[in-house]
Amino acid sequence: xxxxxxxxxxxxxxxxxxxxxxxxxxxxxxxxxxxxxxxxxxxxxxxxxxxxxxxxxxxxxxxxxxxxxxxxxxxxxxxxxxxxxxxxxxxxxxxxxxxxxxxxxxxxxxxxxxxxxxxxxxxxxxxxxxxxxxxxxxxxxxxxxxxxxxxxxxxxxxxxxxxxxxxxxxxxxxxxxxxxxxxxxxxxxxxxxxxxxxxxxxxxxxxxxxxxxxxxxxxxxxxxxxxxxxxxxxxxxxxxxxxxxxxxxxxxxxxxxxxxxxxxxxxxxxxxxxxxxxxxxxxxxxxxxxxxxxxxxxxxxxxxxxxxxxxxxxxxxxxxxxxxxxxxxxxxxxxxxxxxxxxxxxxxxxxxxxxxxxxxxxxxxxxxxxxxxxxxxxxxxxxxxxxxxxxxxxxxxxxxxxxxxxxxxxxxxxxxxxxxxxxxxxxxxxx
Length: 431
Hints:
Layout (H helix, E strand, L loop, with lengths): L4 H12 L10 E7 L6 H14 L3 E7 L8 H9 L5 H4 L9 E7 L2 E6 H5 L3 E7 L12 H4 L12 H4 L5 H5 L5 H13 L6 E9 L5 E7 L6 H19 L12 E10 L10 H4 L14 E10 L22 E3 H4 L4 H10 L10 E3 L2 H9 L10 E4 L9 E2 L4 H4 L31
Parallel strand pairs: 1-2, 1-5, 5-6, 8-9, 8-12, 9-10, 10-11
Antiparallel strand pairs: 3-4, 6-7, 12-13
Helix pairs in contact: 1-2
């Protein structure tokens, strides 16, 4: 955990801009992302303050791809879900959605939003670095494609800056990571974009800021400068892996995974597919994860910091679920969910799940599928972000006592429900 975020941000900016006047008098676009970031608003304000303190005029540009749909209002609403509004940050948001085809490189169409190409003097990139649900590098793939094994982070912001044309990059399928780097390299070397640097953050498993790291960049260094930029991000990505949660019993058949919270603030597909073992609604099991027959979710949210916020939310990834509650289903914005799924090239991610009245009904439905319901192999988790604690069905007890890296706490007891039929487990509604 970074104990003093303000000091950490300030120190990185002193490294990025040692003279203090490098961007004085320039209009700088600052990227805002459509992912939950630990301390998002406070860190974002600090970045704005550092840029303004060096004499820059700051305007925020949503790097959100298709999230929020086809309109400027939708992009602004997407950022508002994370507390990023003109009122909260004190600078304007330029939410233009029109783009220009900058180039086509090795079959990769490279688009960029015109607010970056035409309206500013330079761009400062801000984003969270983490693994990505749809970028899966094999041991030799990155080497064979002559690129870095980057996932979700700073380079991927250029996908976000292509707005609805993010679909063009997703069309490269298993080579998505390669396509993103082709686009990032070309736009990093584009004078009308003029990237001046970046600040990357990493969250820990307690949803706190764990790493704050500046990444310098100057177009004058050409391709070698881009390589250093990507290499710096890759080092941050490797450091981020130590904070990733996992589930026990990899490669073991399990009956049910229950997730209390689900949604875009947790992962691009609502839940980390590299934890739950499903991807894009295909039901294709991913190795090194438990083999769940059923996966269900209780609550769909749009903001981890305000889980009771009203509204309809992007439920991309609902196609990975077998069951949801009625309260989950009634919060789905199907237009945004379908658009996100089509843009990402996985329409199966927007397939509706079976709807049940409450948690009890979902769990009972799963239990009826086995001969001895009391032996239901079930895991109850808060989300795929916070996984420090996990409740297991009694059927796991003997095996759980021999797991490396895990500790069994407490005694077995009946599953507790509220009078409305929802799970009443300590911490679930408070994380």
